[in-house]
Amino acid sequence: METTRQAKIARLLQKELSEIFRQQTAKTHGTIVSVSAVRVSPDLSVAKAYLSVFPSQKAQEVMESIKLSAKTIRYELAQKVRFQLRKTPELQFYLDDTLDYLENIDHLLEQK
User: Fold this and answer.
1) How many helices (H) does the chain have, and how many strands (E)?
2) 77 and 69 Cβ atoms separated by less than 8 Å
3) Residue 41's closest CA among 95, 87, 97?
4) How far apart are CA 108 and CA 23, in angstroms?
5) What is the pLDDT of residues 25-71, one digit of tens each?
6) Rounded Cα distance, 55 and 83, in Å
7) Per residue in 69-87, pLDDT tens?
8) DSSP state of 112
9) Is the separation of the CB atoms in 37 and 52 below 8 Å?
10) How far apart are CA 47 and CA 92, in angstroms?
11) Which CATH class is domain 4-111?
């Protein structure tokens, strides 16, 4: 069960990560990365960020790029939240494919 503190930190991280990805993807026209959820561990040392990528065909390529630049992203995040958090959690990125799943279900329902 998530504590109130975990939820507040998760919301803060989601907001700031969304802004970081918005700035980065503004340079790459046609690709959108959104942070759909952030889960923070009970000791606040690890944050799991679930990302949605549009178009979904570029998802693997974008996720590889994000994972390679995870330290830079963490540094940028630390600069933004340095007055709210003493330590910035370690970031782990996961692909959130729920939109693809929903699209697949809609497609299957239309076939019947």
Assistant:
1) 4, 3
2) no
3) 87
4) 36
5) 877 777 888 899 999 999 999 999 999 888 878 888 888 989 999 99
6) 35
7) 999 999 999 999 999 989 9
8) -
9) no
10) 6
11) alpha beta
